[in-house]
Structures are given as structure tokens and as C-alpha cells.
């Protein structure tokens, strides 16, 4: 675009600017002397001689003057420098938008981690509460059996110790919930207490890894930023190459206000200028060579980023699938542990099993329940990170709403 400016100038010189014409006195005096006597009236001849006696100097400009002028400069040809600068500016705008997208996708993954982390912690509280209730019931049975002489005092003490331990685990789980609520509120920038409204889930059917790889190649903001770095390096090379071309510009100036400026000075002027560097100490050559190497470096970084992204997607996808594949075996273990606890509890009441068998069976059932919840949590976390790597974090809620999404939540022993 043209560049327009207004400039004000005040100048005070050592002397007025003038043009001397004293050299003309001799020829003029000679002409007057050669005229016939009586040709000129005496009064005119006297005035002419008085004029010859004076200093013949024409003042062109007063020593003190000022001006206010408008200036316009229009670059006509810069060897591609203007186009390179404009293209680089557009690329930087696009790159900034991708950084924003990357930050937003990262926040989605952080939100998923803390949202479902809180959901997991709240479910664990329920499991620990169930364990505590069961241990209290078991302790009550142990006290009754000890009073009837069916079990030894050691069996009752064993139940007391693990009941106290179950209470500590329950309180610990509650503290974890409070901590995660604070973390979730920080991510949401909310001071109000927030609780998850949806369950953790595991998808029984999901696209293959190649689908997410293709999404990453098309939409991953980090890969796009790497490609923009290469494009910026290319524009920089064009910019440096423009230094070898001549620079052509049009200019114009118009006087807006004058103070004691000579009337012979023009009110406006237009012109054109050309500048061409012949030699500048090889600076241009060095900068152009460095710009070419920057392109090669950007290409190498882009290739490495491409390979790293595909490797990351494989890793996240395999981990996600691993957690989903754990569910059938965990469910089978859950059914066995539930039945095993029931058998040991009945045997203890009849004096056919020690208290340690009931405690171990109950703790094992709680462990399996928590493992089932953790499998869902890590599945959702890996899914969020996978979608972030693929550049489609905004699709996470759509995956959660799919018909193949199986909710994973706390279940009591009766289920």
C-alpha cells in the first residue's frame, strides 16, 4: 500500500539565499557611457548611475523559513519483497489460529482427564463405602461368634483391624474427591462445586488407527504449524532474493503551509526513484544461503514431526484398545469374586472359615471393581488424547453419545 505522511520543517540559515549579479555592472555601465550625450534626461541618467553604485544581489530565500508538506511514496517494484512480506503475514495469521486450536484441544484433554478423574474418584468412594459397610457387618458377626465361643479372639481382632483400615481408605477417597473437584473447577474457571453428569464409557466399536492417522495428517494443528514454518522459510528465501533486484518507487510531495518560503519554490512535485545495490560485502549472498538452509531444516523437522505423530497415534490407539479388551476378563473376575465372597461369608458365619478369608475376599472384590472403573477412565483418557493427536478433539462428546458407548459405573454386590 502507498505510504502517506505529513512532515513539518523549520530552518534558520546563516545568511539569506541570494544570487549575485554584480558582474553585469560593467557591461551596463559601458552601454550607458556609449550613449550620445543628451539622449537620456539628466534625472534618468543620475538614477542609473545610482543603481550601478548599489550591490546587485537578488534574494531568493529568507534565512528563516518553515513548511508543512504531505508526502506519498508508492513502491512499484521491489523484486518480490512486498509479495513475500504479505504472504508471510498471512501465514503467521494462519499459524496463530492453529496455535489457538492446539491450545483448545489440549484443554479438552485436560478437561477429560479431570472430569472423568473426578467421576472415577466418586465411584471409588462408593466402593470404599461398600467395603466399610461390609467390614462393619463382618465385625458385628465376628463379635457375636466370639461371644458364643465359635471363633477365637484373634479372629475378631483381625476383623477390627481391617475395619479400621477400610475406614481410613474411605476417608482418603473422600479427600481425593475434594482435590479433584478443585482441579476441575480450575479447568472450568469456576468457583462453584462441579460434579460429573455423565458416566465413564468404553466403546465396543471404533474406527481403526488408520482413520485417526489420516485425520492427523489433515487437521493436526502441530503438523500444520510445521508446514507453516516451511512456507515461512520459503517466503524468507524470496525476501532475501529480492535484495538482488532493483528497487523502484514513485513519490510525491505537496506543500500544505509555508512560512517565508520563496515564491519561486514549487507547491508540489512528483518523481520516481530507482535503487540498485551493486556490492554490499556479500551480506545478501550469505542471507540468501542461510534462508535456503532454513527451508531444508524445516523440511527435516516436518518429516520428523510427521513420523512422531503417526507413532504417537499408534501408541495411544493400542493403549486404548488394551483397556477395552481388559473389560471381559475383569467382568469374569468380578462375577467370581462376588460369588467367592458370598461363600466365604456364609462359611464364616458357620465357623467353617477364618475371618481372614472373608476380609481377603471382600478386599479382592473391591480391587476388581476399582480395576473395572480404572479401565474405563484410562480408556476415556486415551481416547481424548488420541482425538487431540488427530486434531478432532471437538468430536469427543460425539463418541460419548454413540450407541456403542457402554457406560461404566459403580455396581453394588447385589448386581
Overview features:
415 residues, rod-shaped, two-stranded antiparallel ribbon, single chain, 64% helix, 9 helices, alpha+beta, four-stranded antiparallel sheet
Topology, pairings included?
Elements: E1 3-12, E2 17-20, H1 25-34, H2 42-53, E3 57-61, E4 64-77, H3 81-147, H4 153-188, E5 200-203, H5 209-219, H6 221-241, E6 247-259, E7 268-275, H7 283-349, H8 355-390, H9 396-400, E8 405-408
Antiparallel strand pairs: 1-4, 2-3, 4-6, 5-8, 6-7
Helix pairs in contact: 1-2, 3-4, 3-6, 3-8, 5-7, 5-8, 6-7, 7-8
Q: What does it look like?
A:
With 415 residues, the chain is an alpha+beta fold. The protein contains nine helices and eight strands. It has a four-stranded antiparallel sheet, with no helix packed on it. A two-stranded antiparallel ribbon has the order 2-3. The longest helix has 67 residues, at 81-147. It is rod-shaped and about 170 Å long.
**Order of helix and strand elements from N to C terminus:** EEHHEEHHEHHEEHHHE
Range of strand content: 5-15%
Report the uncertain regions: none
Radius of gyration: 46 Å
**Secondary structure category:** alpha+beta
Total number of helices? 9
Looking across the biggest beta sheet, what order are the strands in? 1-4-6-7
- The residue-averaged pLDDT reads 90
User: Helix amount, in percent?
Assistant: 55-70%
Number of strands: 8
Shape summary: rod-shaped
The separation of the N and C termini measures 75 Å
Report the biggest beta sheet as strand number plus sense, adding barrel if it closes.
4 strands, antiparallel
